[in-house]
Write a structure and sequence with these properties.
326 residues, 12 helices
């Protein structure tokens, strides 16, 4: 719903294409269910010019074969899994890839923070969480770091015993988690109870997800580190100022901004395609050329969007920039 707000804000800012054509957006809720995503795609995909997917990596991976078969140009707004763009030549990923996020996290922890040993927790039933955790472990060990513990916490109501066992097996200076907002909130509660004094490093979108799913858990994120596409103290440009007129700056989440950028990418592509045929739209999305976005000018190359990424520290529900990575 947050990314949808950003998409709708973009439509309000630029309701018509430069030639006066109206871009009609039809919204269908997959309820975060991969089977429903496929059913909706099969029903509406054949008659659509393109697809803007606000689903996560699991649903996007489930849809890749059908998208390839239907040859429908698609923007994956939130999903980051690397295989989304390698398994289909009709999908463009708006955000950073999972491997890029893992590399940035590994390098920052090992080379900037000079931390030699970490523990990693993830959800093995979630493609995004499991893939990011394992790539992160590989990248961190490749540059001389040690992974003391690698453990999946798959139940939303995991016990104090499980978390305590993670802390007692070996002394790591940092705990890295790729889990969602519900699990992270429970994890942080239990870490506080256990007296964990190390650093907690979280994955992209965690603040937005927690604000949406467990608002009471947002305060628990204070002083954690996170990688994201934006920072709340980044320099404001003309593009975000336009969004400010639709949604107040302090109400803008990362998912809202990604939804807004999806509309910008869509608008930028359609202005260059006479007749809006799928082949032109797909080529325009996958190799967009530079266009103005929230944090800077960005562009897609072969379906992967090249953009700056931030290492942030969360304080009072804000992501404050520590490092900007190009």
């Amino acid at each position: 719903t947050q990314a949808l707000k950003g998409l709708q804000a973009g439509k309000s800012i630029m309701p018509l294409l430069p030639n006066g054509d109206n871009l009609v957006l039809r919204f269908h809720d997959d309820r975060s269910n991969s089977a429903r995503s496929l059913a909706l795609l099969d029903k509406y995909g054949p008659d659509s010019k393109l697809l803007v997917s606000l689903s996560g990596s699991d649903a996007m991976l489930a849809m890749t074969d059908s998208i390839q078969q239907l040859k429908i140009p698609t923007i994956a707004v939130i999903a980051t899994h690397d295989e989304i763009t390698t398994r289909s030549e009709y999908i463009t990923r708006l955000g950073m890839s999972t491997s890029i996020e893992a590399q940035i996290a590994a390098s920052y922890i090992r080379d900037e923070m000079l931390i030699e040993k970490i523990s990693i927790v993830y959800d093995e039933n979630n493609a995004y969480s499991a893939t990011l955790a394992h790539i992160m472990a590989d990248r961190y060990q490749a540059i001389g770091g040690k992974v003391a513990i690698m453990q999946s916490l798959t139940q939303q109501d995991f016990s104090d015993i499980e978390v305590t066992s993670i802390l007692s097996l070996d002394s790591a200076e940092l705990l890295y988690s790729t889990m969602d907002g519900i699990r992270v909130s429970k994890l942080l509660q239990q870490l506080n109870t256990a007296g964990f004094s190390g650093t907690v490093f979280l994955s992209d979108g965690i603040l937005s997800d927690t604000q949406h799913t467990v608002p009471d858990g947002v305060s628990l994120l204070n002083d954690t580190l996170v990688i994201d596409h934006y920072a709340d103290n980044m320099r404001a440009n003309a593009t975000i100022r336009k969004l400010d007129k639709q949604i107040k700056r302090d109400e803008q989440t990362a998912f809202i901004r990604l939804g807004y950028e999806a509309y910008l990418m869509l608008y930028h592509t359609l202005t260059r395609c006479d007749g809006y045929d799928r082949q032109c739209v797909n080529q325009g999305l996958r190799n967009s050329g530079l266009f103005s976005a929230v944090a800077s000018r960005i562009e897609s190359i072969d379906g992967d969007t090249k953009r700056p990424v931030y290492v942030n520290r969360i304080r009072d529900a804000k992501m404050l920039r520590q490092v900007k990575v190009y």
